[in-house]
Amino acid sequence: MRTAVTLGFLCWAACVSAQPKSAVPRATDGKPDLTGVWQGGSTQRGNWEEANAGNGVGGTGRDPSAAAAPSSNDRPAGREGAPYQPWAAQKVMEAYNRRGIDDPTALCLPPGLPRVVMLGLFPQQIIQTPQQVVMLYEYMSVFRVIPLNAPHPDDLLPSYMGNSVGHWEGDTLVVDVTGFNDKTWLSGAGTFHSDQLHIVERYTRVDKDQINYDVTMEDPKVLTKPWVLHSTLMLREGTRLEEYVCAENNLDPREYEHLLKDGVNFKR
Amino acid sequence: MARTSKLWRLAIALPLLATALPAHHSFGAEYDATKPVTLTGVITKIDWTNPHSYFFLDVKDAKGNVANWKFEGYPPSVLVRTGWKKDVTMKVGDTVTVFGWHARDGTNWAHSREVTLANGKKLFFGPPAGTGDGGNTPAVDVK
Question: Are strands B66-73 and A227-235 parallel, antiparallel or unpaired?
Fold first, then answer.
C-alpha cells in the first residue's frame, strides 16, 4: 500500500512535470493539427516580436553589441560535426574558408532542405488536411505539397526542394523526401550533397506552441552515415507570410566578384 | 517571493539565448567585423528591396566635405517584423546615426546594424556582424 502510494506520488510528480504547457490542437480526424505560422530554429514562445526581442532576429534594437545569432550557414553550439567522407569534408572546408560566398541562395536559388525549415529570419506556414499537408516558406517563396499515404511519383525530375510524401506514425508526421538535384546546402556553409540525397523528417507537435523537428539525411555519395539534426518550430500567432522576390535587387554576387578580383583575404 | 523573482529573471533572460537562424547569404564576406563604424548623416535615398535593403547617407567630415555612404540591411519583410514602417519610420532628409561594420574594400559602404532615428528611437536595420559567413566553426570537424 505504502509502495503504491509512493509510486502514485512519483507518477503524479512525473506526470505534472512532464505535462505540456498546453494541449496539442487536434484536426477533425484526430491527428495533431500542424496548421499555423511557425518560426524555425527558435525555442522561444510568444508572438514574433516577443520571441525575437533582445539580440534575436528582427530584434527591437535593445542590445546591438549582443553576440551574433547564428545564421543558417553557422554550426550551432553543441552540434556534432557533419559526417562527410574525407574528400567531401575537404570541399565543405573550402566553402567555409571562402566565407560562404558560394552559397546557392546568393544567386537567389531555392534554399532546399532541411535548411529552409530551420532558418529563423523568415516564417513558414503549414496547412494540413486529412489528405495532404502544404508547407509554405516566405524565404525565396518556395512551397511543398505533401500528399499523405501516397508513393513518390516514378517520373521525378531532380529538383531543389525534392519530392515529399507523408504519413502519420502515431502523433508524428513523417515526411519522406527524394528527387533532389545537387544544388543546395543542407545546414551550414558548404554543406553540399549529391542527387542521391534522401531526407526523412519527423514533425511532432508537443504542445500548442512547439513542433519538434527531427531530420535524417542520407547520401551515400558524400556522407559516411546518416546525418541527424534536431530542431524546433515555434508557433507565431499574428504573423503573416510576406512576398520575397530575391532577384529584385541582388547586388551581392557582384560585390563578391569585386572582392575576389581585389584579392580579398577571407582568413578568419 | 525572492525565489519567484529569481525565476522571473531567468524567464526574462532565457529569450536572449535564442538561436534563431537568419537566412542571409554572406554579410561576413563583404564586411569586416573588426571594423565597426558609427556615422551620423542625412538620408538621401532608401531602397526597400530583396534580398537586401539599402539606404544612403550624406556624411560630413570635420572639414565640411560631404561623402555619400551606402548601408546594406534586412529585406523588407524582416524590416516590417523588426518594427519599421516604409516611408514613415525613416525618410529622405532625416538625420540619423548608424552603427555597423565597414566594407572590406574600405570604400564608403557598410553593413548597418542599428539606426538611431531623429526622435532617438533605435531599431535594427540589419543582422549582427559576420552573419552568413559560416561563423567560427565549420560544419565538419577538422583535425
Answer: unpaired
